[in-house]
Amino acid sequence: MHPAFLPYAKHLDPGCEKPPNGGYAPGIDAMVPCTVLLIILLYTFELHLNGSQPLIYTCDVTAPCGCSSKPVILSSSSRIIGGENSQIGSWGWIVSLQSDDEHFCGGSIISPSHILTAAHCINYFEALGTVTVHAGIHNKTAGGQIRTIAVVLIHPDYNHFSLENDIAILHLSVPLDMTDPLVTQ
User: Fold this and answer.
1) Is 56 left (phi over 0), alpha (psi -120 to 50) or beta?
2) pLDDT tens figures, 129-177
3) Which of 27, 67, 86, 174 has its CA 20 to 30 A from that of 107?
4) What's 149's domain CATH number?
């Protein structure tokens, strides 16, 4: 189940993620399969995203870094979902976030010890030990530098319903080797 749906599923039944008894969720109703619950959750989540109003970010004029001349306006359709293939070495600063050796989100290297990613990518992981950062790879499964996460900093005003302030910084347990040409290209 995608991490974005875990808060909903946990309220229904913690056993629904890996249902016993042939797919039925104990504690709710023995006649309601978890797959039906998941479909309802997915449909509700999709309605929520498609019906969302655009987010408008205005700059704090007192910020020491300055401001752009126009506010940033994001709609739910402006989010990247799925992505596309790239050439080897063309996006060296991009990392793959993986859980149980499966890619689930991306991030950007902002320093040897820090990765910038979306808060929705890591907000629902209760055990960060299962999440690894893969740098310097071209496909989603092979090689590169693999690091664990020591600390996660999620924007304090992150809203998991509207995805407002959907940003997080991951502090790696061991810094990346920035002399690796696959990471620095």
Assistant:
1) beta
2) 789 999 988 765 567 899 999 999 999 999 888 888 889 999 999 999 9
3) 67
4) 2.40.10.10
**E-assigned strands of the chain?**
55-57, 72-74, 94-99, 102-111, 114-117, 131-135, 145-154, 168-172
- 32-46 pLDDT, tens digit each: 445 445 555 554 555
DSSP-derived secondary structure for 77-104: GGS--S-----TTTTTTEEEEEETTEEE
Cβ contacts of residue 127 below 8 Å, gap of 6+? Answer: none
Residue 76 lies in a domain: no
Number of domains the chain contains:
2
Q: State the DSSP H helix or E strand holding residue 108, giving kind and residue range, or none if neither.
A: strand 102-111
Assess whether 26 and 100 both reside in one domain. no
User: What whole-number distance in Å separates Cα of residue 165 and Cα of residue 54?
Assistant: 13
Query: Can you say how many angstroms the Cα of residue 125 is from the centroid of all Cα atoms in its chain?
Result: 10
